[in-house]
Amino acid sequence: MWDSASTFLAREGRRGPLDHELTSLWRATLAPKFDALRGRVHVDVAIIGAGIAGLTAAMLLKSRGRSVALIEKNRVGNGEPGNTTAHITKAVDARYHTIVRTFGKDAAKLVARASRASIEQIESFVRVAQRTSRRRSCST
Questions:
Q1: Is this model's pTM higher than 0.85 or not?
Q2: How far apart are the C-alpha atoms of 99 and 110, rounded to whole Å?
Q3: How far apart are CA 113 and CA 27, in angstroms?
Q4: Rounded distance, CA 129 to CA 112, Å?
Q5: 84-127 pLDDT, tens per residue?
Q6: Would you call 6 exposed, middle or buried from its count of C-beta atoms within 10 A (0-12, 13-18, 19+)?
Q7: To 10 degrees, the CA torsion angle through 35, 130, 29, 81?
Q8: Fewest 10 Å CB contacts: which of 6, 49, 93, 128?
Q9: How far apart are CA 132 and CA 128, in angstroms?
């Protein structure tokens, strides 16, 4: 809807609510750019894409002792995550009442549990990163 509304407003010479440039938190705080992969790399798992799913998979595999290559064509978090507002919530795109109506109560409960588990996983990552950061700052 916004595309057609913006197109209409532009054609009429008017500005719409989304005509100014917005930068997401992800893009404003981009991870460093890494050099291109050169030569052969031997790992247990290669993950293509360093968005939220790729980063999560890499961190979980690494925490379980696997060697991982995380391969990204641009910058970490710059793809789809770069277009988001970076908020974390149990709300999902489909309303829970729609999930219940379409798939049943058990499916809606599963979606809610999965959403909560993903938030708990992110909280766990943050706690580990904070501990690691404190250890580094204490040792310098």
A1: no
A2: 10
A3: 29
A4: 26
A5: 766 678 888 889 999 999 999 999 999 999 999 989 998 998 89
A6: middle
A7: 90
A8: 93
A9: 6
